[in-house]
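Working notes for the structural subgroup meeting. M.R. asked for a predicted model of this chain before we commit to crystallization trials. I am recording the input and output together here so anyone reviewing the notebook later can reproduce the run.

Input as submitted:
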Amino acid sequence: MTDLHEQNILILDFGSQTTQLIARRIREAKVYCEIHPFSLSIDRIRAMKPRGIVLSGGPSSVHDTDAPAVSPEIFNLSIPVLGICYGMQLISLIKGGKIERSDYREYGPAELSIHDTSDLFHGLATEPVRHQVWMSHGDRIQELPRGFISIAGSDSSPVAAMKHETLKIFGVQFHPEVVHTEIGVDVLSNFLFRVCGCSPTWDMHSFIESATEGIRRQAGTGRVICALSGGVDSTVTALLVNRAVGRQLTCVFVNNGLLRRNEAEVVLAFLEQLNLNVRYVDAADRFLALLSRVEDPEKKRKIIGREFIRIFEEEANKIGDVNFLAQGTLYPDVIESVSFKGPSATIKSHHNVGGLPEVMKLELIEPLRELFKDEVRKVGRELGMPDELIHRHPFPGPGLAIRILGDVTEERLRIVREADAIVLEEMKTSGWYRKTWQSFAVLLPIRTVGVMGDERTYDHVVAIRIVDSLDAMTADWTRLPAEILARISNRIINEVRGVNRVCYDISSKPPATIEWE
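Returned structure, recorded in token form:
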């Protein structure tokens, strides 16, 4: 079988909010790709042997002080390069072209006229036909570098796309990855298949075969424990590892005291259906003691990550001769924990990426760290997981600790747990649970005045967060019918002691994140 990673497309990230969409579009074309910071070394790029390189857009101007850049040597690797927006301007600057501030900046829809259909625009109509594309730039190319020609233009950008006459180096000023660019899929497909010579072999069946062999090769005859939470990610991980090494695997389900209502019982019942070898550890008191008076969300994540590892190492010692820890790290976890600007710009430390201790006795097995959430669900379906488990809403590893803003106490856990249960019940009853990505309650660190039973109250505020998404990299708040929101609010205020106000979070990601901490 062909190694899927021989068809690797490398995306170098310059900070665009749509970089992840580039990866999604490439994977939807059944070609494997990875996102890395723009500062990735030439040696690493050579070692990866990508079929093609994409330079993403970004918020900077190429004329900014300390503007992000790549080594000119990247163009001497005989690897096709596609620059998008900032990436195109960077190519032009490095190759000797001139970039100027545009008198008319293009943000939003624009009409593109195609002059050349030999490569990127193969199969697309040329002038006088004009194609709608999505622009987002304030600079434009004033003078092309030597050896480059314009292959498309718009009203304010005579060079809206370019190519080198003999080398496989291309640039587009618009964003082919967004749905508003009507020819975006065609442009990326032409780059992948006509320019880079890729084949559409990346699918979940192929991934399962490749991942199984990779786990088997990594684990050898060693014993493995799997951090199993009962969510889609960790359960798919467990099934893959079980498929690869069978009896060498022991799954460990830890009750950290930060779970949803009845979560432990529900999870154990699910896992019993899957015939996995599961050990249950009740460590609620340990976690709550460590989290006492801790308010900073990053500290919470790191404390929880470290304690999970301690417990897994303790369980490994009890089992004896365990060498590996398998966990359900996903690609968004990796991306958000390693910013294109470096560690100082990390969005948040995921408990199973940035929250891990520096010294750990167990070697990690992370078969899903290349996948987005919707891809994991497809893998689960291929592996025969129950539909109800596949469609469970995501639940963070740190649990309710990051849905309580401020100190984590038994009383505050009770409040958010009861409110969260009402949200999930109403979402399922109304039929909206399957229509949305995630729905949950958050306990805010404030109190407000209310009137209940003709008496003044001074109680807690609960925020409701319900979002639509494909992969958690971007999300928008769900336009839930007012009557369902009213029912959720009414039930929480009447049934959850200590709450007198409910708010609905109408923030998108970006700029907000899905979780509040």
